Amino acid sequence: MSRRAVATVVLCCAAFAGLAACSDAPAPAPATKTVTATPTTSASSSSSASGGSPSSAPGRVFDPRTMQADVRKILTETYQLGEVGDVLCPANQTVKDGSTFTCTVQVGGEGKTVTITVTGEDGRYEVGAPA
Question: What segments bear the compositional bias annotation Low complexity (predicted)?
Fold first, then answer.
């Protein structure tokens, strides 16, 4: 085989390999176990409706509506799950480092739970993968 033929074969193979790497299919999402979220308004100070002192209340608690929106966003954007429906997180969850609770979610019409783990007193938390 001549040098020109060998060069042509090598170039063709390189071009084919390059085209094979250029696929329209998106790369699969990396396996993620938890995602840390820092919502802008997820935690608020709790006080009684009559204007009582916050010391009689549990302290800072997560706003469940904000958390539900943040969990939905994390499931669709970070975990890349399709068909994320209702997300329900419990009210009055204290912002306490190390505490955990669960939110219920609908994924593809199936009920699942995600574990929320508080990772600091500043309102940061991790959102586990749906189980």
Answer: 25-59
